[in-house]
Protein backbone atom coordinates (compact mmCIF):
# COMPACT_ATOMS: atom_id res chain seq x y z
CA UNK A 1 0.00 0.00 0.00
CA UNK A 2 1.22 3.48 -0.82
CA UNK A 3 -0.09 6.81 0.38
CA UNK A 4 0.62 10.51 0.03
CA UNK A 5 0.44 13.22 2.64
CA UNK A 6 0.49 16.04 0.15
CA UNK A 7 -3.03 17.22 0.99
CA UNK A 8 -4.75 17.46 4.35
CA UNK A 9 -8.34 16.32 4.69
CA UNK A 10 -10.98 19.09 4.66
CA UNK A 11 -11.92 18.37 8.27
CA UNK A 12 -8.32 18.70 9.37
CA UNK A 13 -7.92 22.01 7.56
CA UNK A 14 -11.13 23.30 9.13
CA UNK A 15 -9.91 22.35 12.62
CA UNK A 16 -6.57 24.08 12.04
CA UNK A 17 -8.23 27.25 10.77
CA UNK A 18 -10.60 27.31 13.72
CA UNK A 19 -7.75 26.87 16.21
CA UNK A 20 -5.79 29.90 15.00
CA UNK A 21 -8.95 31.99 14.69
CA UNK A 22 -9.88 31.22 18.28
CA UNK A 23 -6.32 31.96 19.43
CA UNK A 24 -6.28 35.34 17.68
CA UNK A 25 -9.63 36.38 19.14
CA UNK A 26 -9.14 35.05 22.66
CA UNK A 27 -5.53 36.27 22.77
CA UNK A 28 -6.48 39.72 21.44
CA UNK A 29 -3.58 40.00 18.99
CA UNK A 30 -3.65 42.07 15.78
CA UNK A 31 -2.71 39.04 13.69
CA UNK A 32 -1.77 35.40 14.04
CA UNK A 33 -0.29 33.07 11.43
CA UNK A 34 -0.04 29.31 11.74
CA UNK A 35 1.49 26.62 9.54
CA UNK A 36 2.01 22.84 9.55
CA UNK A 37 4.67 20.80 7.79
CA UNK A 38 5.15 17.08 7.16
CA UNK A 39 7.16 14.95 4.74
CA UNK A 40 9.65 17.79 4.41
CA UNK A 41 7.31 20.56 3.31
CA UNK A 42 4.61 22.94 4.48
CA UNK A 43 1.18 21.39 3.89
CA UNK A 44 -1.09 24.01 5.45
CA UNK A 45 -1.00 27.65 6.50
CA UNK A 46 -3.62 30.07 7.70
CA UNK A 47 -4.00 33.45 9.33
CA UNK A 48 -6.51 35.48 11.30
CA UNK A 49 -6.43 39.24 11.75
CA UNK A 50 -4.60 41.80 9.66
CA UNK A 51 -1.22 43.41 9.03
CA UNK A 52 -1.37 46.94 7.57
CA UNK A 53 -4.95 46.43 6.51
CA UNK A 54 -4.52 43.08 4.78
CA UNK A 55 -4.42 39.44 5.77
CA UNK A 56 -0.92 38.13 6.48
CA UNK A 57 0.24 34.81 5.08
CA UNK A 58 3.01 32.25 5.52
CA UNK A 59 5.44 34.64 3.80
CA UNK A 60 4.86 37.56 6.19
CA UNK A 61 7.78 38.19 8.53
CA UNK A 62 7.39 38.23 12.32
CA UNK A 63 10.11 38.56 14.92
CA UNK A 64 10.77 35.15 16.47
CA UNK A 65 12.81 36.02 19.58
CA UNK A 66 14.50 33.09 21.28
CA UNK A 67 13.87 30.67 18.43
CA UNK A 68 17.08 32.41 17.28
CA UNK A 69 18.96 30.41 19.94
CA UNK A 70 18.39 27.14 18.10
CA UNK A 71 20.03 28.62 14.99
CA UNK A 72 23.02 29.72 17.08
CA UNK A 73 23.29 26.22 18.53
CA UNK A 74 23.38 24.75 15.01
CA UNK A 75 26.34 26.99 14.18
CA UNK A 76 28.21 25.79 17.26
CA UNK A 77 27.56 22.12 16.42
CA UNK A 78 28.88 22.76 12.92
CA UNK A 79 32.14 24.02 14.43
CA UNK A 80 32.31 20.89 16.58
CA UNK A 81 31.66 18.60 13.62
CA UNK A 82 34.49 20.29 11.72
CA UNK A 83 36.87 19.62 14.61
CA UNK A 84 37.35 23.30 15.42
CA UNK A 85 36.14 22.89 19.01
CA UNK A 86 34.92 20.29 21.47
CA UNK A 87 31.68 20.73 23.40
CA UNK A 88 33.61 20.02 26.60
CA UNK A 89 36.10 22.79 25.88
CA UNK A 90 36.07 25.65 28.37
CA UNK A 91 34.90 28.88 26.80
CA UNK A 92 38.26 30.46 27.67
CA UNK A 93 40.03 28.21 25.15
CA UNK A 94 38.31 29.95 22.24
CA UNK A 95 37.04 33.21 23.71
CA UNK A 96 39.47 34.41 26.38
CA UNK A 97 38.95 37.29 28.75
CA UNK A 98 35.23 36.96 29.51
CA UNK A 99 35.67 36.28 33.22
CA UNK A 100 33.43 33.19 33.00
CA UNK A 101 35.74 31.17 30.78
CA UNK A 102 35.70 28.01 32.91
CA UNK A 103 32.17 27.11 31.82
CA UNK A 104 32.05 24.70 28.89
CA UNK A 105 30.53 25.13 25.47
CA UNK A 106 28.02 22.35 26.21
CA UNK A 107 26.96 24.00 29.46
CA UNK A 108 26.27 27.24 27.62
CA UNK A 109 24.27 25.46 24.92
CA UNK A 110 22.07 23.69 27.47
CA UNK A 111 21.65 26.66 29.85
CA UNK A 112 23.58 24.73 32.47
CA UNK A 113 26.47 27.16 32.91
CA UNK A 114 24.82 28.91 35.86
CA UNK A 115 24.93 32.35 34.22
CA UNK A 116 22.39 35.09 34.88
CA UNK A 117 19.26 35.07 32.75
CA UNK A 118 19.50 38.70 31.63
CA UNK A 119 22.07 41.41 31.07
CA UNK A 120 22.21 44.36 33.50
CA UNK A 121 19.67 47.18 33.13
CA UNK A 122 18.40 48.77 30.99
CA UNK A 123 16.28 45.86 29.73
CA UNK A 124 18.08 44.61 26.62
CA UNK A 125 14.95 43.70 24.66
CA UNK A 126 13.70 47.29 24.55
CA UNK A 127 16.96 49.20 24.21
CA UNK A 128 19.57 49.53 21.44
CA UNK A 129 22.44 47.05 21.41
CA UNK A 130 24.93 49.92 21.26
CA UNK A 131 24.27 50.43 24.98
CA UNK A 132 26.14 47.11 25.51
CA UNK A 133 29.19 47.46 23.26
CA UNK A 134 31.31 44.77 24.94
CA UNK A 135 30.81 41.40 26.59
CA UNK A 136 31.58 42.96 29.97
CA UNK A 137 28.52 45.20 29.46
CA UNK A 138 26.41 42.13 28.69
CA UNK A 139 27.63 40.04 31.63
CA UNK A 140 27.74 42.74 34.32
CA UNK A 141 29.38 42.52 37.72
CA UNK A 142 27.72 39.26 38.81
CA UNK A 143 27.34 37.03 35.77
CA UNK A 144 27.46 33.66 37.59
CA UNK A 145 24.53 32.76 39.84
CA UNK A 146 24.76 28.97 40.18
CA UNK A 147 27.43 26.25 40.09
CA UNK A 148 28.07 25.19 36.49
CA UNK A 149 26.53 21.90 35.40
CA UNK A 150 24.22 21.51 38.40
CA UNK A 151 20.92 22.93 37.21
CA UNK A 152 19.06 24.39 34.27
CA UNK A 153 18.95 28.18 34.44
CA UNK A 154 17.87 29.84 31.20
CA UNK A 155 20.43 32.42 30.13
CA UNK A 156 20.20 34.95 27.33
CA UNK A 157 23.71 36.14 28.18
CA UNK A 158 25.03 32.61 27.64
CA UNK A 159 23.85 32.71 24.03
CA UNK A 160 25.49 36.09 23.56
CA UNK A 161 28.74 34.36 24.51
CA UNK A 162 28.03 31.54 22.06
CA UNK A 163 27.45 34.04 19.25
CA UNK A 164 30.77 35.69 20.05
CA UNK A 165 32.38 32.25 20.16
CA UNK A 166 31.12 31.53 16.63
CA UNK A 167 32.58 34.83 15.43
CA UNK A 168 35.94 34.18 17.12
CA UNK A 169 36.35 30.66 15.73
CA UNK A 170 34.87 31.30 12.28
CA UNK A 171 36.45 34.71 11.75
CA UNK A 172 33.18 36.16 10.42
CA UNK A 173 30.14 37.82 11.95
CA UNK A 174 27.39 35.73 13.50
CA UNK A 175 24.86 37.08 10.99
CA UNK A 176 27.05 36.41 7.95
CA UNK A 177 27.92 32.91 9.19
CA UNK A 178 24.27 32.10 9.83
CA UNK A 179 23.19 33.27 6.40
CA UNK A 180 25.95 31.37 4.61
CA UNK A 181 25.92 28.12 6.61
CA UNK A 182 22.27 27.60 7.63
CA UNK A 183 19.73 29.96 6.07
CA UNK A 184 21.03 29.65 2.52
CA UNK A 185 21.39 25.86 2.43
CA UNK A 186 17.91 25.38 3.97
CA UNK A 187 16.31 27.80 1.51
CA UNK A 188 15.24 30.21 4.26
CA UNK A 189 15.33 33.31 2.10
CA UNK A 190 12.84 35.23 4.24
CA UNK A 191 14.78 34.90 7.49
CA UNK A 192 17.32 37.43 8.68
CA UNK A 193 18.47 39.88 11.31
CA UNK A 194 16.42 42.78 9.90
CA UNK A 195 12.80 42.89 8.69
CA UNK A 196 12.08 42.87 4.97
CA UNK A 197 8.58 43.71 3.72
CA UNK A 198 6.03 42.34 4.02
CA UNK A 199 6.46 42.15 7.76
CA UNK A 200 4.27 42.63 10.80
CA UNK A 201 4.67 45.53 13.20
CA UNK A 202 4.96 44.72 16.89
CA UNK A 203 2.22 45.96 19.21
CA UNK A 204 1.35 46.03 22.88
CA UNK A 205 -2.36 45.45 23.53
CA UNK A 206 -3.93 47.23 26.50
CA UNK A 207 -5.05 44.65 29.08
CA UNK A 208 -8.37 46.42 29.79
CA UNK A 209 -9.23 48.11 26.49
CA UNK A 210 -9.15 47.20 22.82
CA UNK A 211 -6.38 49.66 21.98
CA UNK A 212 -2.75 49.14 20.98
CA UNK A 213 0.64 50.79 21.41
CA UNK A 214 3.62 50.32 19.04
CA UNK A 215 6.60 48.47 20.52
CA UNK A 216 10.23 49.30 19.66
CA UNK A 217 12.11 46.95 17.31
CA UNK A 218 15.71 47.39 18.39
CA UNK A 219 18.89 45.99 16.90
CA UNK A 220 20.13 43.85 19.78
CA UNK A 221 23.84 44.15 18.97
CA UNK A 222 25.89 41.55 20.84
CA UNK A 223 22.65 40.00 22.16
CA UNK A 224 21.51 39.18 18.61
CA UNK A 225 22.39 35.45 18.81
CA UNK A 226 19.90 35.18 21.68
CA UNK A 227 16.88 36.69 19.93
CA UNK A 228 17.39 38.91 16.89
CA UNK A 229 15.86 37.00 13.97
CA UNK A 230 12.83 37.79 11.85
CA UNK A 231 11.25 34.91 9.96
CA UNK A 232 8.09 33.57 8.35
CA UNK A 233 5.87 30.59 9.03
CA UNK A 234 7.01 29.00 5.77
CA UNK A 235 10.71 29.41 6.53
CA UNK A 236 10.27 28.09 10.06
CA UNK A 237 8.49 25.03 8.70
CA UNK A 238 11.65 24.30 6.72
CA UNK A 239 13.73 24.70 9.86
CA UNK A 240 11.37 22.51 11.89
CA UNK A 241 11.65 19.69 9.36
CA UNK A 242 15.42 20.07 9.53
CA UNK A 243 15.18 19.51 13.30
CA UNK A 244 13.42 16.22 12.56
CA UNK A 245 15.45 14.93 9.62
CA UNK A 246 18.74 16.81 9.53
CA UNK A 247 20.31 17.99 6.28
CA UNK A 248 23.78 16.98 5.12
CA UNK A 249 24.43 20.54 3.94
CA UNK A 250 23.99 21.81 7.49
CA UNK A 251 24.10 19.06 10.14
CA UNK A 252 23.90 15.28 9.99
CA UNK A 253 20.88 13.51 11.53
CA UNK A 254 23.17 12.27 14.34
CA UNK A 255 24.23 15.81 15.26
CA UNK A 256 20.64 17.05 15.07
CA UNK A 257 19.62 14.26 17.42
CA UNK A 258 22.37 15.44 19.77
CA UNK A 259 20.83 18.92 19.75
CA UNK A 260 17.55 17.53 20.99
CA UNK A 261 18.96 15.18 23.64
CA UNK A 262 18.33 16.44 27.23
CA UNK A 263 21.47 18.09 28.58
CA UNK A 264 20.84 19.03 32.21
CA UNK A 265 18.28 17.96 34.83
CA UNK A 266 14.96 19.78 34.82
CA UNK A 267 14.27 21.98 37.81
CA UNK A 268 11.55 21.43 40.38
CA UNK A 269 8.13 21.75 38.78
CA UNK A 270 9.62 21.45 35.26
CA UNK A 271 9.30 17.70 34.71
CA UNK A 272 7.00 18.14 31.72
CA UNK A 273 9.89 19.38 29.61
CA UNK A 274 13.60 19.97 29.36
CA UNK A 275 16.35 21.43 27.23
CA UNK A 276 18.87 19.90 24.87
CA UNK A 277 21.66 21.83 23.18
CA UNK A 278 19.71 24.83 21.98
CA UNK A 279 16.41 22.95 21.63
CA UNK A 280 13.49 23.02 24.03
CA UNK A 281 11.77 19.72 24.81
CA UNK A 282 8.19 19.28 26.01
CA UNK A 283 5.73 16.50 26.73
CA UNK A 284 2.29 17.37 25.37
CA UNK A 285 -0.63 15.06 24.74
CA UNK A 286 1.49 11.93 25.07
CA UNK A 287 4.07 13.25 22.60
CA UNK A 288 7.65 14.41 22.94
CA UNK A 289 7.95 17.74 21.18
CA UNK A 290 11.14 19.53 20.22
CA UNK A 291 11.63 23.10 19.08
CA UNK A 292 11.63 26.49 20.76
CA UNK A 293 9.44 29.38 21.74
CA UNK A 294 10.29 33.05 21.50
CA UNK A 295 9.18 36.52 22.44
CA UNK A 296 10.36 40.09 22.08
CA UNK A 297 8.36 43.28 22.67
CA UNK A 298 5.54 43.16 20.15
CA UNK A 299 5.93 39.50 19.14
CA UNK A 300 5.44 35.91 20.34
CA UNK A 301 6.41 32.79 18.42
CA UNK A 302 6.24 29.03 18.81
CA UNK A 303 7.77 26.15 16.85
CA UNK A 304 7.24 22.50 17.74
CA UNK A 305 8.07 19.27 15.91
CA UNK A 306 7.37 15.62 16.64
CA UNK A 307 10.00 13.31 15.20
CA UNK A 308 7.82 10.28 15.87
CA UNK A 309 4.87 11.72 13.94
CA UNK A 310 6.94 13.48 11.29
CA UNK A 311 4.87 16.64 11.83
CA UNK A 312 5.86 20.21 12.76
CA UNK A 313 3.86 23.35 13.45
CA UNK A 314 4.55 27.07 13.76
CA UNK A 315 2.50 29.90 15.28
CA UNK A 316 3.44 33.60 15.08
CA UNK A 317 1.66 36.68 16.48
CA UNK A 318 2.46 40.38 16.68
CA UNK A 319 1.66 41.32 20.27
CA UNK A 320 3.79 41.43 23.41
CA UNK A 321 1.41 39.07 25.18
CA UNK A 322 -1.88 37.40 24.49
CA UNK A 323 -2.28 33.81 23.24
CA UNK A 324 -0.31 30.99 24.79
CA UNK A 325 1.60 30.68 21.55
CA UNK A 326 3.43 27.54 22.64
CA UNK A 327 0.10 25.79 23.21
CA UNK A 328 -1.24 27.03 19.87
CA UNK A 329 1.68 25.54 17.95
CA UNK A 330 1.42 22.29 19.92
CA UNK A 331 -2.32 22.12 19.22
CA UNK A 332 -1.80 22.62 15.48
CA UNK A 333 0.68 19.75 15.47
CA UNK A 334 -1.64 17.56 17.52
CA UNK A 335 -4.64 18.23 15.26
CA UNK A 336 -2.79 16.87 12.24
CA UNK A 337 -1.01 14.01 14.02
CA UNK A 338 -4.23 12.80 15.65
CA UNK A 339 -6.54 13.22 12.64
CA UNK A 340 -4.09 11.90 10.05
CA UNK A 341 -1.55 9.69 11.82
CA UNK A 342 1.63 8.72 10.08
CA UNK A 343 1.41 5.47 8.14
CA UNK A 344 3.90 2.90 9.42
CA UNK A 345 6.62 1.80 7.04
CA UNK A 346 5.82 -1.56 5.42
CA UNK A 347 7.36 -4.60 7.05
CA UNK A 348 9.86 -6.28 4.78
CA UNK A 349 12.11 -9.28 5.43
CA UNK A 350 15.85 -8.79 5.64
CA UNK A 351 17.64 -9.16 2.28
CA UNK A 352 20.10 -11.63 3.82
CA UNK A 353 20.84 -13.11 7.22
CA UNK A 354 23.94 -14.22 9.12
CA UNK A 355 23.11 -17.63 10.56
CA UNK A 356 25.35 -17.10 13.59
CA UNK A 357 23.44 -13.93 14.45
CA UNK A 358 20.12 -15.65 13.83
CA UNK A 359 21.14 -18.30 16.38
CA UNK A 360 21.45 -15.55 19.03
CA UNK A 361 17.81 -14.54 18.74
CA UNK A 362 15.01 -15.67 21.01
CA UNK A 363 14.68 -15.87 24.81
CA UNK A 364 17.50 -15.04 27.22
CA UNK A 365 17.49 -14.69 30.99
CA UNK A 366 19.07 -12.14 33.27
CA UNK A 367 18.74 -14.04 36.52
CA UNK A 368 15.09 -15.11 36.37
CA UNK A 369 13.90 -12.19 34.22
CA UNK A 370 13.01 -13.20 30.66
CA UNK A 371 14.16 -11.10 27.72
CA UNK A 372 13.86 -11.43 23.98
CA UNK A 373 16.67 -10.71 21.51
CA UNK A 374 15.66 -9.80 17.97
CA UNK A 375 17.83 -9.43 14.87
CA UNK A 376 17.15 -6.29 12.81
CA UNK A 377 18.64 -4.55 9.79
CA UNK A 378 22.37 -3.91 9.42
CA UNK A 379 23.24 -6.65 11.95
CA UNK A 380 21.56 -4.66 14.71
CA UNK A 381 19.94 -6.19 17.77
CA UNK A 382 16.99 -5.33 19.99
CA UNK A 383 16.70 -6.47 23.62
CA UNK A 384 13.32 -6.21 25.35
CA UNK A 385 11.63 -7.67 28.45
CA UNK A 386 9.16 -10.45 27.69
CA UNK A 387 6.97 -9.80 30.72
CA UNK A 388 6.78 -7.24 33.48
CA UNK A 389 9.23 -4.38 33.74
CA UNK A 390 12.79 -4.43 32.57
CA UNK A 391 15.44 -2.52 30.71
CA UNK A 392 15.42 -2.80 26.96
CA UNK A 393 17.47 -1.14 24.26
CA UNK A 394 18.37 -1.10 20.60
CA UNK A 395 21.93 -1.98 19.65
CA UNK A 396 24.02 -1.09 16.60
CA UNK A 397 26.73 -3.42 15.32
CA UNK A 398 30.37 -2.45 15.70
CA UNK A 399 33.17 -3.59 13.36
CA UNK A 400 34.79 -5.63 16.16
CA UNK A 401 31.78 -7.95 16.50
CA UNK A 402 30.23 -6.26 19.51
CA UNK A 403 27.19 -3.99 19.70
CA UNK A 404 26.68 -0.53 21.21
CA UNK A 405 23.50 0.43 23.03
CA UNK A 406 21.52 3.25 21.44
CA UNK A 407 18.98 4.22 24.09
CA UNK A 408 17.68 3.79 27.60
CA UNK A 409 19.79 2.45 30.45
CA UNK A 410 22.16 0.70 28.05
CA UNK A 411 22.93 3.70 25.83
CA UNK A 412 26.64 3.49 24.97
CA UNK A 413 27.10 0.18 26.81
CA UNK A 414 28.69 -2.80 25.05
CA UNK A 415 26.86 -6.03 24.25
CA UNK A 416 29.14 -8.93 23.37
CA UNK A 417 28.89 -12.67 22.83
CA UNK A 418 31.04 -14.78 25.18
CA UNK A 419 31.98 -18.18 23.79
CA UNK A 420 33.29 -21.34 25.40
CA UNK A 421 36.59 -22.92 24.39
CA UNK A 422 34.78 -25.10 21.85
CA UNK A 423 33.27 -22.04 20.15
CA UNK A 424 29.72 -22.50 21.44
CA UNK A 425 27.93 -19.55 22.97
CA UNK A 426 28.18 -19.36 26.76
CA UNK A 427 26.28 -16.14 27.41
CA UNK A 428 25.75 -12.54 26.46
CA UNK A 429 27.63 -9.90 28.42
CA UNK A 430 25.92 -6.50 28.54
CA UNK A 431 27.91 -4.01 30.56
CA UNK A 432 28.90 -6.91 32.92
CA UNK A 433 25.32 -8.23 33.17
CA UNK A 434 25.14 -11.89 32.16
CA UNK A 435 22.28 -13.17 29.99
CA UNK A 436 21.96 -16.97 29.70
CA UNK A 437 19.71 -19.30 27.74
CA UNK A 438 18.24 -20.78 30.95
CA UNK A 439 17.43 -19.09 34.27
CA UNK A 440 20.34 -20.10 36.52
CA UNK A 441 21.21 -23.14 34.44
CA UNK A 442 23.78 -25.58 35.84
CA UNK A 443 27.23 -24.79 34.59
CA UNK A 444 26.24 -21.32 33.37
CA UNK A 445 28.71 -18.48 33.93
CA UNK A 446 26.55 -16.80 36.56
CA UNK A 447 28.45 -14.35 38.82
CA UNK A 448 28.51 -15.87 42.28
CA UNK A 449 27.74 -19.34 40.92
CA UNK A 450 24.58 -21.49 40.97
CA UNK A 451 23.58 -23.68 43.90
CA UNK A 452 24.60 -27.25 43.08
CA UNK A 453 21.27 -28.59 44.33
CA UNK A 454 19.46 -26.86 41.47
CA UNK A 455 15.81 -25.81 41.46
CA UNK A 456 13.63 -27.42 44.15
CA UNK A 457 10.35 -27.20 45.95
CA UNK A 458 9.96 -25.33 49.22
CA UNK A 459 9.71 -28.53 51.26
CA UNK A 460 12.70 -30.29 49.74
TrEMBL record:
Pfam families the record matches: Beta-lactamase, DUF7586
Single GO MF descriptor: hydrolase activity
Domain of life: Bacteria
Domain (Beta-lactamase-related) ranges: 20-333
Name under which the protein is recorded: Class A beta-lactamase-related serine hydrolase
Listed InterPro entries: AmpC-like (IPR050491), Beta-lactam-related (IPR001466), Beta-lactam/transpept-like (IPR012338), DUF7586 (IPR056008)
Stretches assigned to the DUF7586 domain: 353-437
Keyword vocabulary terms for this entry: Hydrolase
Organism, as annotated: Streptomyces corynorhini
Keyword Cell membrane tagged: no
SUPFAM superfamilies: beta-lactamase/transpeptidase-like (SSF56601)
Amino acid sequence: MTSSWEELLPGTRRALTHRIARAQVEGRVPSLVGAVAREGRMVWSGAHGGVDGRAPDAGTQYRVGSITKTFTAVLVLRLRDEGLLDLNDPLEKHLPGTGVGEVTVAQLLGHGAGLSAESPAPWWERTPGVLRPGLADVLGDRPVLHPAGRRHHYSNTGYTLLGSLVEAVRGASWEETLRHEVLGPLGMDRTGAEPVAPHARGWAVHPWADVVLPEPAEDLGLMAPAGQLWSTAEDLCRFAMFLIEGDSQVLSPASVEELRTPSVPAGAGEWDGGYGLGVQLAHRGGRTLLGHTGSLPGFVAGLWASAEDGVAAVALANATSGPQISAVAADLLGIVADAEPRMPEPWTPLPEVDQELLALTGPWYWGTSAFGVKLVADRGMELYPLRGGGRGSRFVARPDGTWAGLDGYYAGETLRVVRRSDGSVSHLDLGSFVFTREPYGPGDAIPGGVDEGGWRGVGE
